[in-house]
Each structure stands twice: as structure tokens, then as C-alpha cells.
TrEMBL record:
<feature type="transmembrane region" description="Helical">
    <location>
        <begin position="69"/>
        <end position="89"/>
    </location>
</feature>
<feature type="compositionally biased region" description="Pro residues">
    <location>
        <begin position="316"/>
        <end position="327"/>
    </location>
</feature>
<feature type="transmembrane region" description="Helical">
    <location>
        <begin position="182"/>
        <end position="201"/>
    </location>
</feature>
<keyword id="KW-0812">Transmembrane</keyword>
<keyword id="KW-1133">Transmembrane helix</keyword>
<feature type="domain" description="EamA">
    <location>
        <begin position="151"/>
        <end position="284"/>
    </location>
</feature>
<dbReference type="Pfam" id="PF00892">
    <property type="entry name" value="EamA"/>
</dbReference>
<comment type="similarity">
    <text>Belongs to the EamA transporter family.</text>
</comment>
<protein>
    <submittedName>
        <fullName>DMT family transporter</fullName>
    </submittedName>
</protein>
<dbReference type="InterPro" id="IPR037185">
    <property type="entry name" value="EmrE-like"/>
</dbReference>
<feature type="transmembrane region" description="Helical">
    <location>
        <begin position="154"/>
        <end position="175"/>
    </location>
</feature>
<feature type="transmembrane region" description="Helical">
    <location>
        <begin position="213"/>
        <end position="232"/>
    </location>
</feature>
<keyword id="KW-0472">Membrane</keyword>
<feature type="transmembrane region" description="Helical">
    <location>
        <begin position="125"/>
        <end position="142"/>
    </location>
</feature>
<feature type="transmembrane region" description="Helical">
    <location>
        <begin position="36"/>
        <end position="57"/>
    </location>
</feature>
<feature type="transmembrane region" description="Helical">
    <location>
        <begin position="95"/>
        <end position="113"/>
    </location>
</feature>
<feature type="domain" description="EamA">
    <location>
        <begin position="11"/>
        <end position="140"/>
    </location>
</feature>
Length: 327
């Protein structure tokens, strides 16, 4: 393997590790601060970072926001905020390991909602993979035995569904348009900041007096799990195949479990351990079936900029053939 390939693989694995660790970071932050205050801080810090990148590219001659970027960014900002509200409340009421595993259902839910890139109906094997994932969710929710599902697990299940709707909407609204990912992401982060400011405003003094450890978690969620991870993902995907990127980024739920068990004190019972294994297997299987069934991508419009050219740097969503992740 060449040094360039090793470096690219290392970056993709780092992105998967960062995203896998985001659930424990969110859980830790919400233990110290109200959920809506955490969301405001995460959005505001991400917006400041993206605005800084936009200003940097503007000095190099990049054009201003287009009407499409603003018009599409507003509704996508609303759906993205809905995802993070449900997801963050879910993380606060379940284990980091369960959160990372259940949210990976997005991978098999999204093709059911976004049928634009498929050659006819999805094959039966895809629905079999979805069934494996549903069984895995049931085992993860069971904990030490079959009992009433935990609130956090149900919220993460809802977050996976809302995220699938969001990702499908991203594909539908941006198809055939010259949308720069950095500009679109910046609009979304500004929408989230404006949305959460009124509800978080009464608790802002609490945020200002938070401990350095809490601030570290917030900065990690905003700058590393959001801005850095998206930048690194786009850079790496350009230098490898989509299939290889999917394989490496698809290890995210594995890292979520590893971080939750090693650092968060999570415990895997035999039932939840079986559920974790089935979830990883089911999502990999479903992703492989869906990728094989997808039409070749349409040529990019001539006016569309490259994901990491001087007009863009921070994508709002992974490429269609890569895992649809969190954060």
C-alpha cells in the first residue's frame, strides 16, 4: 500500500473515530448543561468557524452566497436542527454505545425515502438487511432482558428516521444545482444558532461560567465532530474510492461502542452485544446492496464547484455512496 493510500485511510478512520466519540461527548456535555444550551453552543461555535472559512475564501476571490444556497439552506437548517434536538435528548437518556448504533439505522432508512438514484425497486436482500437492523434495535433496547424500551433508545430511533428524511431532502434539493458545501453548511449553522438562541438565552450565564472540561466538550463537538470531520472526510473521499471510504467510515458505530465501553462506563450484556453485532452487520449489508443497486451518478453541472476548491471547504452531508453519519 502506498504512503498516500495509508494517509488517506488514516484520515478516514480518524473521522470515524471522531464521529463515534461524539455521542459520549454530547452525553457528557448534557450532563453539565441543559440540552438546548448545548445545542446553541455547538451551533454557534460551528457557525463562527464556518464564517471564518468563508471570509478566508472570500479574500481569495470566491463569490458571495447564491440565491439557491440561501433558499435551500434555510429549510435544511430547520431539518438539521430537528435531528440534533431529538438526537441530543436521546443521547442524554441512553448509553453512548446504544446511541451510536441506533443512529446508524439512517444508512438503511435513507434509501427507502430517497429513490431517485435507484434502478427500479430495491431488491429483497435490502429489506432482509433492514430486518436484521430492526431486530438489532430490539436487542439493544432490551438491555438486561426484554422489558419496556428506554426513552433514550426510542428518541435515537426517532432521530435516525428524521436524519434519513433530512439526508433525502438534501439530495432532492441540491440535485442538479451548483451548491457549494461550505456555504450551504454555514447557512445551516446560522439557522440553528438563531433557532436555539431564544430558548438558550436565559441559561447563557450558566454557559459562560461552565467549567473548562465542559467547554472542551463543546469545542470538540463543534470544531472536531462537525467542521474538522466534514473537511477531512471530503479531502479523503477525493483521494480514494467511494467503496473504500464507505468501508472505513462505516466503522463509526464500532468506535461508538468502543468509546462508550472504554471511557463512558457502558456495559454490553449478551443481548446488547448480539444487538451491536447484528446492527453493524445489517448496516454494512444494506449499504452494500443499496450501493450496488444505485445508478451511476449524473455528471456534475459545469458550474458546480469541486467539494474542496477555493469556493468550498465544509460539506453539509457525506457523498451519496458514503455512510450517512451523525453530527
Amino acid at each position: 500500500m502506498s504512503d498516500a493510500r495509508r494517509h488517506t485511510d488514516a484520515v478516514l478512520l480518524l473521522v470515524a473515530i471522531v464521529w463515534g466519540s461524539s455521542y459520549l461527548s454530547a452525553q457528557t456535555a448534557t450532563a453539565a448543561l441543559p440540552v438546548l444550551l448545548v445545542l446553541f453552543a455547538r451551533y454557534a461555535l460551528s457557525a463562527l468557524a464556518c464564517l471564518g472559512l468563508v471570509a478566508s475564501w472570500r479574500r481569495r476571490g470566491a463569490r458571495r452566497w447564491t440565491r439557491d444556497e440561501l433558499r435551500i439552506g434555510l429549510p435544511l437548517g430547520l431539518t438539521q436542527a430537528a435531528v440534533l434536538v431529538v438526537e441530543t435528548y436521546g443521547v442524554a437518556h441512553t448509553s453512548a454505545a446504544n446511541a451510536g448504533l441506533i443512529i446508524s439505522l439512517t444508512i438503511v432508512l435513507t434509501p427507502l425515502l430517497d429513490r431517485g438514484g435507484h434502478r427500479g425497486p430495491l431488491p429483497a436482500s435490502f429489506f432482509a438487511a433492514t430486518g436484521v437492523c430492526v431486530l438489532a434495535v430490539g436487542l439493544l433496547m432490551s438491555g438486561n432482558g426484554f422489558a419496556e424500551p428506554r426513552l433514550g433508545d426510542l428518541l435515537m430511533l426517532g432521530a435516525a428516521l428524521i436524519r434519513a428524511v433530512h439526508v433525502a431532502l438534501v439530495g432532492r434539493l441540491t440535485a442538479g444545482r451548483a451548491i457549494r458545501p461550505l456555504q450551504l453548511t454555514t447557512v445551516q449553522t446560522l439557522v440553528g444558532t438563531v433557532l436555539f438562541l431564544p430558548v438558550a438565552a436565559p441559561d447563557l450565564p450558566t454557559l459562560l461560567h461552565s467549567t473548562p472540561a465542559t467547554w472542551a466538550q463543546l469545542v470538540y463537538l463543534a470544531l472536531f465532530c462537525s467542521v474538522f470531520a466534514f473537511l477531512a472526510q471530503t479531502w479523503a473521499v477525493q483521494r480514494t474510492s467511494a467503496s473504500r471510504a464507505s468501508l472505513l467510515l462505516g466503522t463509526e458505530p464500532v468506535w461508538a461502542v468502543a468509546v462508550g465501553v472504554a471511557l463512558g462506563g457502558d456495559h454490553l450484556t449478551p443481548l446488547t452485544g448480539l444487538g451491536a453485532a447484528l446492527m453493524v452487520a445489517g448496516t454494512y449489508w444494506g449499504q452494500a446492496v443499496e450501493r450496488a443497486h444505485r445508478r451511476p451518478p449524473n455528471p456534475r453541472p459545469p458550474s458546480a464547484s469541486h467539494p474542496l476548491d477555493k469556493d468550498s471547504a465544509c460539506p453539509s452531508t457525506p457523498p451519496p455512496t458514503t455512510p450517512l453519519t451523525t453530527t
